[in-house]
Design a protein that fits this description.
Largest sheet: 5 strands, antiparallel
Strand content: 25-35%
Number of helices: 5
Distance between the termini: 6 Å
Strand order of the largest sheet: 1-6-10-8-7
Oligomer: single chain
Order of helices and strands: EEEEEEEEHEHEHEEEHEEEEHE
Helix content: 10-25%
Low-confidence stretches: 1-23, 28-59, 62-66
Mean pLDDT: 78
Length: about 300
């Protein structure tokens, strides 16, 4: 149907999360059925003392005129599959348009810049109903503002209401190994490029620790639902190349997912970094209310 028209957008508030997407080079095994995977970029906690999600009112979703969030000018939401099999996630954006195909669970992770371990209280359909979103803004919007507009859309169309708490959550802390980092700083004008991946592996390049952190906090598929916090204190631009094995698995419900079984080992051996378990106080969101989206 026709997209629902929205009223004039309100000025955006500053929010440090982005909605960019990044790709990978993946080696295919003949006949193994591996599929192309896009690693979604999500704002990640940068240190144990820094939180990426702003402290808002206890209930997030219902908005008063005094705290009105920016909104898209037109939005279309369609249910594609009520019981999706496999892992599906696609995001494409430009300054005036956002296109997403995923579950409500994934939409929330991206909109709020959080990981699986920071979201609870979800009904089953959050992860099994596949939706497409087409959203348009009359005026150009940056990635931060686009995610604020996505929050507004989720509150409006899915009647989403979240409660934010601070909890001591299990995390992985990323630090520098005893021998120091094994990657070099980028020279002026130099850019990183993904290397060719042998069959059954994925090759990724990163130009900063922030870039690497974003990939590690890809909704839990890389780090077993734990957020990763950065304790490397490396702030420059680097040529970081990572090659790791990728495996496709099917759960008891027939949903297909991908795993990276040797990721931590490869980060240590190839990058000279270490990942250790820890606990950090950080934002946690509880679903208080949600409903199937209203018609277009």
């Amino acid at each position: 149907g026709d997209a629902r028209r929205r009223g004039a957008r309100q000025p955006a508030a500053a929010w440090p999360g982005g909605g960019a997407t990044g790709g990978s080079r993946i080696g295919r095994r003949g006949g193994a059925g591996h599929r192309d995977v896009t690693l979604r970029m999500v704002a990640a906690p940068q240190s144990a003392s820094v939180q990426t999600v702003p402290d808002r009112s206890p209930a997030i979703g219902a908005q008063s005129s005094a705290t009105a969030m920016p909104e898209f000018d037109a939005v279309s939401v369609r249910l594609l599959d009520a019981n999706v099999k496999g892992s599906h996630s696609h995001t494409q954006s430009d300054p005036k348009r956002l296109t997403m195909v995923s579950t409500l669970h994934r939409f929330i992770l991206q909109a709020y810049g959080i990981t699986n371990g920071q979201l609870g209280g979800e009904p089953d359909w959050f992860k099994t109903s596949l939706y497409s979103i087409e959203a348009v803004s009359a005026a150009p919007a940056g990635p931060d503002q686009m995610m604020l507009m996505l929050r507004s859309m989720l509150a409006d169309r899915f009647r989403l209401k979240l409660r934010q708490e601070d909890r001591d959550l299990p995390v992985f802390a990323l630090g520098v190994g005893a021998g120091g980092p094994k990657f070099k700083e980028l020279k002026p004008g130099q850019v990183t490029r993904d290397e060719t991946a042998p069959p059954g592996t994925v090759a990724r390049s990163f130009d900063s620790m922030k870039d690497l952190m974003n990939a590690l906090n890809d909704g839990g598929s890389l780090t077993q639902d734990r957020p990763v916090v950065d304790r490397t204190h490396l702030t420059g631009n680097y040529n970081i190349q990572l090659l790791t094995e990728i495996e496709a698995q099917t759960d008891g419900f027939g949903r297909r997912t991908v795993q990276f079984p040797n990721l931590f080992r490869d980060i240590q051996s190839q990058l000279g970094l270490k990942i250790v378990p820890d606990r950090v106080r950080m934002p946690y969101f509880v679903v208080e209310q949600a409903a199937a989206p209203t018609p277009n």
